[in-house]
Amino acid sequence: MKAFVYHGPEKMSLEMVSKPIIQQPTDAIVKVTTSTICGTDKHIRHGGLPEVEPGRIIGHEFCGIVEEVGSSVTRFKPGDRVAVSCVTQCMECFYCRRGIYSQCENGSWIFGYMIDGCQADYVRVPYADSGMHLIPNDLEDEDVLFVGDILSTGYFGAESGKIQPGDTIAVFGSGPVGMCAMATARLWGPSRIVAVDIDDSRLEFALKHGWADVGLNPNKVDVVQELRDMTDGRGADVTIEANGFEPTFKGAINSVRPSGTVSIIGVFEKPQIVEMNKLWIKNITIRMGLLNANRIPELIKLIRAGKINMRPLITHTLPLTKVAEAYDIFEERRDNAIKVVLKADA
User: How many structural domains is the chain composed of?
Assistant: First the structure.
């Protein structure tokens, strides 16, 4: 089968490799119909996650058709259309029993990281009964494609913020994850969602689709002061960091009001400084982590009901055979690229 394989920093190629097989009775083999390139894949491409071994097939956000199931899989059968969680959940370990699926001792985020991923014709899905989700017949892959990763990540960021009705929310980073955080933050009834980014086109996109109410460019305005001006001098009730870089990290912390919450969902490659000498007296809460991906069924219901629609994030669609070009489009933001989708060959 075809697969996009990592061989070290800046060394990735489309190759012919062996088709995966059932290794455990809880496995399923899925024919990948639609996948995407994520920001984390970009980190891997440039060596930002050195624990990824050469020879690894990349990718973790996808939909497909079940081709084969192990003897212990009871919820799915060949032919089922499924969206797959990027967080593998064994449902039996110390963390899974406590609902902390992101730290599953037998899984967590492993696709395209610790095991072979989805930028391929086929993928092996461990613990298939807990990691796969049926796609309703009236929805297409593109409708639910993001539930397995970025939409669940955005939801996790909003949920971790402990948003209250009427709050002012500021999201630092208007990439795909940031926009998913904005869209899901709406579910808690904030009065105002503020998108913060240095790319005006991203701000305009978030405003156009109703995910944000206000857009602020740090290169043009003092974001901290603007947020204070909106909130009687206090600052945002909740800030969500969705980028993984120092400017957005500092912005999120500096912009939150005393006793507010900073929710961090960006992927960081470098250490960050937390100025405790200034922060200890503000009583702020800083929450962070990897998504639990425990609300995928609910997100699919919300999509089906028309309450959430992240399909506009898809700006480019290419066949798997052009995956290398797709990476370049994604990284270079050609033609204002946001999410680049890979489709199985006809």
Answer: 2
